[in-house]
Amino acid sequence: RCLPFRCPLPSLERSELRAWGRLWNGTFLEEFLDVENLELIVRAGVSVTSPRGNVVIKDAVAQMSVSLHLDPGVAVAAVPWWVLLLAALLGLGLLALLVLGLWKLGFFRRARAPAPAVPRFRAVRIPWEQR
């Protein structure tokens, strides 16, 4: 995939322009998983837009070859399914132990209001006819 980039150059007095790039291991393993050897051709072109029309660039296009070799021992292997199952079961067991311990300590009991010190009296409803 080509990515254009632009950068301001304060002066063009140097006769050499260098650019560096990286190809991450993850990109190599994701994009080219079935390939053991890969050769990339990198092309770069330089163009200058200047208010002055007197800027001349020699060799404005460059090309180079990059060879990549996959080391099978370094490649990331997939995690076996039984390891994932075992980790999930151990996690659920740990969660069950935590809930059981909190239940035994009374963490899930409902907090009740203390009994009032003054006794409560029941309100009596008086019908209108007896008044």
From TrEMBL:
Superkingdom per UniProt: Eukaryota
Domain Integrin alpha third immunoglobulin-like intervals: 1-68
Leader sequence segment: none
Residues spanning the membrane: 81-103
GO biological process: cell adhesion mediated by integrin; cell-cell adhesion; cell-matrix adhesion; integrin-mediated signaling pathway; leukocyte migration
Annotated GO MF terms: integrin binding
GO cellular component: external side of plasma membrane; integrin complex
Topological type in the membrane: Single-pass type I membrane protein
Location(s), subcellular: Membrane
InterPro entries in alphabetical order: Integrin_alpha_C_CS, Integrin_alpha_Ig-like_3, Integrin_dom_sf
One Pfam family hit: Integrin_A_Ig_3
Record's keyword terms, sorted: Glycoprotein, Integrin, Membrane, Transmembrane, Transmembrane helix
Protein name: ITA7 protein
Gene for this chain: Itga7_0
